[in-house]
Amino acid sequence: MTVALRVIPCLDVDAGRVVKGVNFENLRDAGDPVELARRYDADGADEVTFLDVSASSDGRATTIEVVSATAEQVFVPLTVGGGVRSVADVDALLRAGADKVGVNTAAIARPELIAEIAARFGSQVLVLSVDARRTRDGAATASGYEVTTHGGRRGTGLDALEWVRRAEDLGVGEILLNSIDADGTTAGFDLEMLADVRAQVHVPLIASGGAGTAEHFVQAAQAGADALLAASVFHFATLTIRQVKDALAAAGFSVR
Q: Is residue 131 among the annotated active site residues?
């Protein structure tokens, strides 16, 4: 059976508003998260991802009230990430209406967190968000890819390919791969990085960062993505979810 590709709009939320920048910088306002989530649900999104982009760098938890209000408006799965540091945080988000929870910074600091969450709630609720870039500033990894934290602002020296392999072994259910180099550029997904990560793991892989045209989504699917996530092109009405799905279907992929 062919599994249908998922098309996922992403709400990057800062101080209760959806924002979008380029390479995680120069953020501009893109609207109200609850309104956008409602619109995407009606437009045929397969899931909605909600990322509190300043929670980790501000040292606080995700805004539960906004998550709860968003969850009330959408009838497709809602993934929430940002500032998740413990099993208790995951529990709170699931109770607020999230279907899946994303971890990033806290899992890098303490990888056992992945195993703890998977043991308590099951792998299916756990998404590892990986903000990866090509190494720079003197950093060196075997793969040439480095994991970053704090919205791409801090390099960790951690090899991205080693990290996704380890996370899968620890029980993560899905990987959201965001290319920091491509993020917000609308120049296309990082297909090389996508293919390299796809070769390392068996869990579903979500491509993120760089979508600008419907063809870009097709290319990411061809590189091995199981789901395709984007923000700018949907928030600013460059593309509709239906246009993306039509392009994928025309290329021979199964879509919902």
A: yes
